[in-house]
Design goal:
Largest sheet: 3 strands, antiparallel
Strand content: 5-15%
Distance between the termini: 58 Å
Bound molecules: carboxymethyl coenzyme *A
Shape: globular
Structural class: mainly alpha
Length: about 425
C-alpha cells in the first residue's frame, strides 16, 4: 500500500481499494473518498459532519485540542491585540493584511456602502415593534437580493467585490436599524467620518448617552476597543454551521445576499450564535451562586434537556482561545465602568464549579466564546436580544470571505449530501376506501 493512501476492505467480498490521502498545511490529512460508491456501492455516514471535510479552504485554521485559532495564518491573540476589525475583514477577504493606504481605501469603501436604500429602510415599518431583531435581520438582509440583482454575475470578480463590501457595510446599518425600530426611535444614518465600530455604536445609541464621554460627540474609545475586539473574535470560524449554510446555498449559484440571509438564519439557533443570548437568559434563570449546583446537576441529567449554554464546542476540546481573551476583557470592561455586574460573578462561579466536575472534565466541556461575550455586550448597553445580531455583523466578514473563496474556484459542485434511507420499502398505493 502506498504511504499516502487509506486502504478500505469490504469484509464480505474481500475487495480492497486504496483512497488517496492529502496532507493539509496544518491539521489532519484528509482521505478522498469520492470513489467509495463507485468501488463499493456504499455511502459514508457522518451525521453532523463530524469527520467530513466539505471543502478546501485557506481562510481559517482551528486546532481544537490545543486551543489554536488562526485567521490566514495569524494567531487570533495577535490580531485581537493589534488590529482594527476592518483590518481583519480585509485580511479574511484578501488573504493578506492591508498596508496603510489599502486600509484607508477599504474603510472608505465600506463606509460608502453602509448607507441603505430608503425603500429598504421602509421595510422595517412592516415589522411589529416587538419582532426579534434576528428575524428582522434575516428578512432585510435577504431583501437586499431584490435591490442588487442586475450586476450580480457571481463569476465576475468586480461584482463579487461589490457584493462583499456592500454586505459588510450594510450589515451594521441594518442591525442598528432593527434595534432602533424595536425601541421606536428614528433610524440613524451612517457617517463617513467614523470607524466601523464607532459608526455602529452611533447608529445604535445616538443621543442616548450610553456611549458618549462628551455629551453626544465623543464616543468612549474604551467601549469602541471592546466592540472591536468582540467583532474580531467572532469574524470567522472555518466550516461552522452558518458558514457551511452560506456555502451550501452559494453552491447552487444563488444570489449572495440570499445566501448570507441563510447564514444568519443558521446562526440564530441556541446551539450556535444564539448561545450568547441563551447564556444571559440562563444566568438570569439561575439567579444566584447558591443555585449553581442545582443547575449543574440538571445539565448532567440525561433525562433533562437543559444544557449549560456557553459550554462545549464541536471542535475545541481543551479551551476556546476566544473565551480566554473575552474573559480577560470582561474584567477590564467591568472594572473600567466600575460595574459590579452580578451576572459576571455568577458566570465565574458557574465556570469554576463546572470545570471541577468530572462530567465536564470527561467530556472536555469548557466555556466557549459565547459564555462571556454577552456580559461585555451588556456592559456596552447592547440589549440581550441583539447579542446574536452582534455575532452576525462580525461573522458576515467570514461568510463573505468563504463565499468569495468558493466563487473563485473554477468549478464548485452543488452541495448535495446523500442519506441512509430508513423509511418504508416500496409498497403499492391503496385507495382511500380500502384503508
Ligand atoms: N452542557 C451539558 N452537557 C453538554 C454540553 C453542555 N453545554 N455540551 C455537550 N454536552 C454533553 C452532551 O450531552 C454529550 O454527553 P453524552 O456523551 O453523555 O451524551 C457530550 O457532552 C457531547 O456533546 P455533543 O452534543 O455530542 O457535542 P457536539 O459537538 O455535537 O455539540 C455544542 C457541541 C456546542 C452544540 C454543545 O456543546 C452545546 O450544545 N453547547 C451549548 C450551546 C453553546 O454554547 N453553543 C455555542 C457554541 S460556540 C459558538 C459558535 O461557534 O457557534
Amino acid at each position: 500500500m502506498a504511504n499516502d493512501a487509506l486502504l478500505i476492505k469490504h469484509t464480505g467480498t474481500g475487495k480492497e481499494v486504496e483512497y488517496p490521502l492529502t496532507k493539509a498545511v496544518l491539521g489532519a490529512e484528509t482521505v478522498d473518498m469520492r470513489g467509495l460508491y463507485r468501488d463499493f456501492g456504499c455511502f459514508s455516514y457522518d451525521p453532523g459532519y463530524m469527520i467530513t471535510a466539505s471543502c478546501k479552504s485557506a481562510i481559517t485554521y482551528i486546532d481544537g485540542d490545543r486551543g489554536i485559532l488562526l485567521y490566514r495564518g495569524y494567531p487570533i491573540e495577535q490580531l485581537a491585540e493589534h488590529c482594527d476589525f476592518m483590518e481583519v475583514a480585509y485580511l479574511l477577504l484578501k488573504g493578506e493584511l492591508p498596508n496603510k493606504d489599502q486600509l484607508r481605501e477599504f474603510n472608505l469603501e465600506i463606509a460608502d456602502r453602509s448607507i441603505i436604500h430608503e425603500a429598504l429602510r421602509k421595510f422595517f415599518d412592516g415589522f411589529h415593534y416587538d419582532a426579534h431583531p434576528m428575524a428582522m435581520l434575516v428578512g432585510v438582509v435577504g431583501s437586499l437580493a431584490a435591490f442588487y440583482h442586475r450586476e450580480m454575475d457571481v463569476k465576475n470578480p468586480e461584482h463579487r467585490w461589490l457584493c462583499a463590501t456592500r454586505l459588510i457595510g450594510k450589515l451594521s446599518t441594518i442591525a442598528a436599524a432593527s434595534y432602533r425600530h424595536s425601541i421606536g426611535r428614528p433610524f440613524v444614518y451612517p457617517r463617513m467620518d467614523l470607524s466601523y465600530c464607532e459608526n455602529f455604536l452611533n447608529m445604535m445609541f445616538s443621543r442616548s448617552a450610553q456611549i458618549y464621554i462628551d455629551q453626544d460627540h465623543y464616543i468612549d474609545p474604551f467601549l469602541v476597543k471592546a466592540l472591536n475586539l468582540l467583532f474580531i473574535l467572532h469574524a470567522d470560524h472555518e466550516q461552522n454551521a452558518s458558514t457551511s449554510t452560506v456555502r451550501l446555498a452559494g453552491s447552487t449559484g444563488a444570489n449572495p445576499y440570499a445566501c448570507i440571509a441563510a447564514g444568519i438564519a443558521a446562526l440564530w439557533g441556541p446551539a450556535h450564535g444564539g448561545a450568547n443570548e441563551a447564556v444571559l437568559n440562563m444566568l438570569a434563570q439561575i439567579g444566584t451562586a447558591a443555585n449553581v449546583p442545582k443547575f449543574i446537576a440538571k445539565a448532567k441529567d440525561p433525562n433533562d434537556t437543559f444544557r449549560l449554554m456557553g459550554f462545549g464546542h464541536r471542535v475545541y476540546k481543551n479551551f476556546d482561545p476566544r473565551a480566554t481573551i473575552i474573559r480577560k476583557t470582561c474584567y477590564e470592561v467591568l472594572s473600567r465602568s466600575q460595574t459590579n455586574d452580578p451576572m459576571f460573578e455568577l458566570a465565574l462561579s458557574l465556570e469554576e464549579q463546572a470545570l471541577k466536575d468530572p462530567y465536564f472534565i470527561e467530556r472536555k466541556l469548557y466555556p466557549n466564546v459565547d459564555f462571556y461575550s454577552g456580559i461585555i455586550y451588556k456592559a456596552l448597553s447592547i440589549p440581550v436580544d441583539m447579542f446574536t445580531v452582534m455575532f452576525a455583523i462580525a461573522r458576515t466578514t467570514g461568510w463573505v470571505a468563504h463565499w468569495y473563496e468558493m466563487m473563485d474556484e473554477p468549478a464548485t459542485p452543488i452541495g448535495r449530501p446523500r442519506q441512509l434511507y430508513v423509511g418504508p420499502a416500496r409498497r403499492d398505493f391503496v385507495p382511500i376506501y380500502q384503508r
